[in-house]
Amino acid sequence: MKTLISIIISTATVIFLSGCQEKLLEKYPITTVNPSTFWANESDAEMAVNDLYRYLPAINQIMMDRMSDIAIESAAGKNFLITGAVDDTFSDFQSWWANNYSAVSAVNRFIKSIELVPEGKISKEKHDRMIAEARVIRAIAYTFLVNYFGNVPFFTNPIEVSEASTIFRTDKQTVLDFIETELTEAAEILSVKYTGGDIGRITKGAALAWKARAMLWSGQFSKTAAAAKAVMDLGVYELEPDYAKLFRYAGEYNNKEVILERIYTVLLPHNFTALVAPYELTGQSATMAINATKTLVDSYETANGLSIDKDPAYNPEDPYRNLEPRYYATIWSPVYRNGAYADTLWGKPIPFDCRPGARNEKGQPCKDILESTQSCNMTGFLFKKYTNPEDMANINACHQNYIILRYADVLLMYAEAQNEISGPDPSIYKAINDIRHRARLPELPAGLSKEEMRTKIRHERMIELAMEGLRFYDMRRWNIVKQVMPDGQAVAQMYYYDIATGEKKMPKWTRCIYNFPVNADNTFSIPFKEYNINPNLLPNNAGWNND
């Protein structure tokens, strides 16, 4: 894994670029180029800025949910962070550091190098737009860095190896102020909407929406509400009527809810389906990487808009029937007992049964039997969201785009921030009720207190944004980690009636016991590889080695 020094060396000596086809980021990798001869014209600069888009959050960002209470990594011996089996050498800490500093360094290099394009070979409009796009990408990277590590090394120009090995950490608020300024200024330059070959570029709305997220994550509610309201006032975004469609191929490109997405193509695919879909669909046996938890499943409201413990019409002996639509778009419902509702997998003639001893339509043991192998269905709840039946023929060549920012999240961010500022008002009710209308749920009751509205908003975020990689950040900034993941508690698996005995089973996955490390500012350790090279990064964050 790269350290900051190796990142500086690599970005200073070579630039990786990709050609641009009809749509942005339909990329064909080309060989490395010589920076001294490359920056000849506007086309070179556009090729270079397009390449920076590979630093946007990718679809594997969804996997951050398995470091929360709503999902787990479906492999015995994994789930290191939520079980507390981590220290300053934890590989994810190093990845978070290296990947985001790779983005920062690449943007710094781009902003300096674009000035090499001869005068008259690039229009001022394109020059300014490209730099604004790059500044947003760098701001995104710094947002993640301060979220994970608090005070971090901060630089906006290319730096030499000697500086990288001695640089000190900068106060988190200074970096956040920079992020705010960068996104504000970029939003003034970027267009509200692009067409043709520029579809997929970072827009004014994307800069403002990320500003809202960065400010929300840092608890700056007035700035959050203002940025989110600015997105709302653009008048170009609205909720997609079909929630499930958002996460299918049919919902890609020109969807009015999507503000920014990571684009994939047939030539630049991903293997997400192989990591999440039932083995009965994919034919795999050792690739599954994430399961939903019973905590998430039990948090969905019924079709009547009530929690399952408050709805007299809910039948715990038929637990997956008559739930709200977002549940069915997100989770495959397994067989609980004979006669209870269960999903039928795409192209299959019988309900999805993963209870021990279950067999598929061919009379063979189900490939998704609960906790049957080291990397499989550990909870009984497998994800449907972000998978497509079209991908079953080639599960390692998916090209479903990943939504980084969407309008529903903007509404939720606005509602949360505005409620924290002044308590419930009509604009907050409208934001939340618009989302609930889409889910065919009743409106929130009138007269909620600030605390009651906070609970409602947090619940909506948990459900609306499940399997989008945001719960990890929400539960930490809300300081509820130990509440939703109590130390010593095992992850609950699906309840079911045993096929052989008829006995009701209520198992827990005892190989995943919560012990999530929490310190006062919800930060993680500076990676050992980094402070071992550069002691100026010490003292470490509270509660970690060398603090």
What secondary-structure arrangement, pairings included, does this model have?
Layout: H1 4-13, H2 35-38, H3 42-52, E1 71-72, H4 91-113, H5 124-149, H6 161-164, H7 172-189, H8 204-217, H9 221-233, E2 258-262, H10 272-276, H11 279-282, E3 291-292, H12 294-299, H13 325-330, E4 331-332, E5 382-383, E6 402-406, H14 407-422, H15 426-438, H16 450-464, H17 471-477, H18 481-484, E7 490-492, E8 496-497, E9 504-505, E10 508-513, H19 528-533
Antiparallel strand pairs: 1-3, 2-6, 4-5, 7-10, 8-9
Main traits of this protein?
547 residues; mainly alpha; Serine Threonine Protein Phosphatase 5, Tetratricopeptide repeat; two-stranded antiparallel sheet; two-stranded antiparallel ribbon; 10 strands
